[in-house]
Design brief:
The complex is a heterotrimer, with 1 copy of chain A and 2 copies of chain B. Helix content of chain A is 51%, strand content 8%. In chain A, strands 2-4-3 form a 3-stranded antiparallel beta sheet, covered by helices on one side. Chain A is built from 9 helices and 4 strands, in the order H-H-H-H-H-E-H-H-H-E-H-E-E. Among the domains of chain A are: 112 residues, no CATH class; 71 residues, Arc Repressor Mutant, subunit A (Orthogonal Bundle), CATH 1.10.10.580. In chain B, strand 2 and strand 3 form a beta hairpin. Helices cover 45% and strands 15% of the residues of chain B. Chain B has 10 helices and 7 strands. Chain B folds into 2 domains: 79 residues, Orthogonal Bundle (Arc Repressor Mutant, subunit A), CATH 1.10.10; 84 residues, Arc Repressor Mutant, subunit A, CATH 1.10.10. A 3-stranded antiparallel beta sheet of chain B has the order 1-3-2. The chains are: A mainly alpha, B alpha+beta. The interface between A and B is large, with 47 and 65 residues. Strand 1 of chain A pairs parallel with strand 4 of chain B, so a sheet runs across the interface.
């Protein structure tokens, strides 16, 4: 058989078969070289690149004879190895430029060792404990509920400017008669009548001014006058008592009770 | 061979190991498990109830508890930490003019009643404005005014001071100082864009 | 108010409480969480790294472990209990030899260009292989190489580390040995210019 010289023993035959499979599986010429190198049964660092080149060239020859279609890069590798082989066999030509055959051979050895190193590392990586295979995450994660929070942004300057705006508002208001600044006695009487039921102790008349009429001095004056007039009216009716300790002193009011003799 | 024979033939793992196993299964499972379902997944001879009880004890006071509901068991977040399970999305909004004015008046006049605020602003204060400021915890109810009707007053809060970087509300600049800072004059007309932006930035620096 | 003032104003919860909180958050999720994401969910002033470290210690030897991958943390069941977990095992597509080798080359040589992967394997890398690894979120695009053509590079991801239970890319099996043997060096074919030279420092990014 013409191919017999290739297949020297059983192991090599198996290797050759693997090669055919690998060609189909398209693992590339470097893969073929790595597989072939194993037949040398030496450390990759001490491999004979010359021998490997010959093995590879035989492999390509055999493939051709078996009419196995080889991809272009296998043939490129074959051409390169043929060149390398000639470099290694012939004495170095001092005239020639470029790397020596030894340098090229060393690099090919490095490539093979590196590929093998990566394969071993890949195997170790895949042999590690893996998520979803050896170790597992939380099977029933608890939902994180989304809560939308609105943050209101206001700076101190906003605050002060707003206050300044409010305080100077009057300056910018168009001129008009402010009728609202007068609190009538009728209004005061209405209010006092509603409140006297609660006034069991002497208390300051000013406390009975309506809320909205306390701060503005003009409005306060109007409200005080009206409330005082209304109180006098109520005293006349016998519903209220009124007293003032001294001139310009506080005017105090109190509900008049029946047990309380008129003073 | 009887069941008893099997029990002695295959020794059950030590209880600590059983507890680890139950822990791992309950952690990884996608639904609460019945003790019987757990037992089916454990090596022969394990005492599931014992393992569950000691696991439950181990998680006492932790961030996660082993809870039983009916005859099913599951790990659950400790109830007091449930607030951590909420993810907040934050949206920043500017306070409305009504709100910032109301807040300013409360800050400067506290304690102040609603009627007084209305008097100063010259417009009524909506319930919503007060509610918003309360919700922000920038204002709170003060003592009732000891006047007829005993109206509630509003004051600002610690959170207000913290937000605006003030030590006390007394640190707020008075009208004279506001004027000196240029905040009282050149007030933009309502509805027109404020052209004094650069001044605002200047002022900002003073307070940050 | 300065940051320091705030720190003293709002006191952080005690460390034991911080640990509980981290425990609850990590227990509730199946995805690894970054320490920064954890910190964002904890009250002000918490020391997340401290809490994580003491939590990790607490779960040593338990049925569930706290694993770190990159700067992400997650609880995972102990690998020695995998025999109990058949129910949880997800049937994953078996990776092709090409995909496994490509992944390993990217992991050990990152950041690495496609041309470099091809040089190492001695065969072209199919588009599908890269796509598959990207889809698994085990690899991602790194910075472009600053060489002519500015080729894209590939690096591994946090998800890759998490899947293989690696804390960092430094923990890859045999990394030291491979490096000592010079097998991770970039050694160009003699007589060809090394296009990676200007950015050699890049190569070790992931490992330092």
């Amino acid at each position: 058989m013409p191919d017999d010289f290739l297949i020297r023993d059983r192991q090599e035959r198996i290797a050759a078969e693997a090669l055919v499979v690998d060609v189909d599986g398209y693992e590339g010429p470097l893969d073929v070289l790595l597989t072939l190198s194993r037949t040398q049964k030496v450390d990759l660092r001490r491999i004979s690149i010359l021998q490997l080149a010959e093995q590879y060239l035989h492999f390509v020859e055999a493939a051709k004879r078996l009419r196995i279609e080889l991809a272009a890069d296998y043939l490129v590798m074959a051409a390169w190895l043929a060149f390398l082989k000639s470099r290694l066999l012939l004495p170095p030509d001092p005239e020639e430029e470029g790397p020596s055959g030894e340098e090229l051979a060393a690099h090919l050895a490095f490539q093979l060792e590196r590929l093998e190193g990566m394969r071993k590392a890949a195997a170790k990586l895949m042999a590690r404990d893996q998520l979803g295979r050896e170790f597992f995450g939380r099977g029933e994660p608890e939902d994180v509920s989304l809560k939308r929070r609105v943050v209101y942004d206001a700076s101190l300057v906003d605050l002060m400017r707003a206050y300044a705006g409010v305080k100077t508002k009057d300056d910018f208001e168009p001129l008009h008669l402010k009728r609202g600044a007068f609190y009538t006695m009728e209004q005061a009487l209405e209010r006092m009548k509603g409140l006297i039921g609660t006034v069991l102790e002497w208390s300051d008349l000013e406390d009975y001014l309506p809320e909205a009429w306390r701060l503005d001095p003009k409005k306060r004056r109007s409200a005080t006058a009206a409330t005082f007039a209304a109180s006098l009216e109520l005293v006349k009716e016998g519903a209220l008592e009124l007293r003032q300790a001294d001139t310009f002193g506080r005017i105090e009011v109190k509900r008049r009770t029946t047990s309380d003799p008129l003073s | 061979m009887s069941r008893e024979d099997l029990d002695t033939l295959f020794e059950a793992p030590p209880i600590a190991e059983q507890e680890r196993m139950v822990e791992a299964i309950l952690f990884a499972t996608s639904e609460p498990l019945k003790a019987t379902a757990l037992a089916a997944r454990l090596p022969h001879g394990c005492d599931v109830m014992h393992a569950l009880a000691s696991l439950q004890k181990r998680y006492q006071g932790r961030g996660v508890h082993l809870l039983r509901s009916g005859d099913e068991w599951a790990f659950r977040t400790a109830a007091d930490l449930s607030f951590l399970m909420q993810k907040e999305t934050v949206e920043t909004r500017k306070l409305s003019r009504a709100a910032i004015e109301t807040l300013a008046i409360i800050a400067y006049h506290q304690p102040v009643t609603r009627a007084e605020i209305e008097e100063i602003r010259g417009v009524s204060v909506s319930r919503g404005t007060i509610d918003l400021l309360m919700e922000l915890e920038w204002i709170r109810l003060g003592r009732r005014r000891q006047t007829p009707g005993r109206p509630v007053t509003f004051t600002t809060t610690q959170a207000f001071l913290a937000h605006f970087g003030l030590e006390t509300a007394r640190d707020l600049p008075d009208l004279k100082e506001l004027r000196a800072a240029g905040l009282l004059d050149n007030r933009p007309l309502p509805g027109t864009p404020d052209e004094r932006e650069p001044v605002e930035n200047d002022t900002d620096d003073m307070f940050e």
